[in-house]
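for the writeup, i need someone to sanity check this before i put it in the appendix. the sequnce is what the collaborator sent (i think, or maybe the updated version? ugh). structure was predicted straight from it, no edits. if anything looks off just tell me and ill rerun, i have time this weekend
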Amino acid sequence: ASAARTVDTASADFTNYDAKGVVLFLDVTANPGAAETLTVQVQMKDPVASKYKTMSTYAATATANATYIYHFYPGAVETTPTTELEVQGLPLPRTWRVNVDHSAAGSWTYSIGGSYVK
């Protein structure tokens, strides 16, 4: 849900039953400016140790109010450069989560949602 946040925020675990990938939407409605950024990470969970490992940190970071799209799908490539769109060609693991990394302690208001891709 959209909320004001000042620290890194991780989602709850998601269980992927049969999708190959996911499209994530980061909707930023307020930002602190001052060159602060948000970076979206897709993290997988080790089923034995229950530890998280970052699979992908998207190169483009959120810097302003906008909707950013992150496409995570095996073999995917960005064919046309598009502002606020990043693509990673990796398969989505069984248990995963999204982490939004804050570069500093400024207040951001955002939500992040997603849709599975089969």
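The two ends are 24 Å apart (CA to CA). The chain is about 0% helix and 50% strand.
thx in advance!!
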